[in-house]
Amino acid sequence: MRRTASLVLLGLAAFFTALSPLMRWYAFPRLAKIPPSQYQDMVLEARPATLLDYGTMKARQVPEVTIVQTLKGNVAEADRIERTTGRDVVVWDALSYVAGPDGKMVSEIPERYIFDAHSQDPVHATGEMVDGDPVRRSGIEYKWPFLTEKRDYAYFDPQTRTSAPIHYKGTRTYRGLEVYYFEQAIPWTKVPLPKKMPVKGITPEAVEKMGTTRWYSTTRMFWVDPVTGAPVNGEEIHKEELRGGQLLPGGGKVTAFAGHVKMRADYVDATVSLVKSQRTLVLLLTSYLPWGFLALGAVLLAVSLHLEARARRPRRDAAPPAADGVVSGGP
């Protein structure tokens, strides 16, 4: 009976020991993915900020500028692209809406971001764009990969329509989480004018005909949870200028928008809570279950060997066999 139990336990030990690496290296890469229907919104503020008054074409300081960013999963487009690529794909229709202190629109830039649901690598397909302009992304945007590494990544900048390194600057503690801090600096670069201008009657084509160009520079900062790859906080020191042409007196330059953009406190709190719940699911597949199965396998193996050893040990209270022709028990 002991030997049968020992063999059963030995089989279970082998099963759970083999399941440990399979959970980490086979199941996790296939099960961990971004849902195609995800919706997320975020509010950022610059207080105070510098903003262009298009009536006077002069920059003025305002108490605040608000930026509302939304990411909406487009399930129908994701299904369409999956049929042609054979990959699990997420399509985010994003919108960055900038409003002045009076609530009126300053700029409005839509994006379509297509990426692999597991690795977050960009997937190139029809419809990939920024403000209506077709783009071909390289690197990441909005989110880092699961199990983020301590290294630099290529990060796509929607203003310049190009990717540039975003540098790992160290590990920090933020709101009780151990996070990786990344920073990207974009030097002054000529960028397209938004398709939708804040003043009625002024179009990008008209501004370009007058010889005026738009320039942009930013320092982008992210605090990223390394388990889920989700930023728990983001900031930008953002600057925009209009330069030259007939639109500006004397053909000089003027600040169109400048400010230190930060996530609003209530959105930081909500983001940290969401990330804490999601990281538990990722750790379950990458750490808790694999190590738990490995420990269980070791315990079952030890019990199996113990039972096997006891089954092989002779019983001390067993009577010795009687010799031939001799009856034990006395005369």
Write structural notes for this entry:
With 331 residues, this protein is α+β, with helices and mostly antiparallel strands. Helix content is 29%, strand content 38%. It is built from 4 helices and 13 strands. Strands 1, 2, 3, 4, 5, 6, 7, 8, 9, 10, 11, 12 and 13 form a 13-stranded antiparallel sheet that branches. A hairpin with a 6-residue loop joins strand 11 and strand 12. The longest helix has 48 residues. The C terminus is likely disordered.
> Count of DSSP E strands?
13
Helix vs. strand class: alpha+beta
Cα-based radius of gyration, to the nearest Å: 31 Å
Please write the string of helix (H) and strand (E) elements. HEEEHEEEEEEEHEEEH
Average residue-wise pLDDT: 89
By DSSP (H or I, 4+ residues per run), the number of helices equals 4
| Biggest sheet statistics | 13 strands, antiparallel
**Low-confidence sequence ranges:** 325-331
Strand proportion, as a percent range, falls in 35-45%
N-end to C-end Cα span: 39 Å
Estimate percent helicity: 25-40%
Shape: elongated
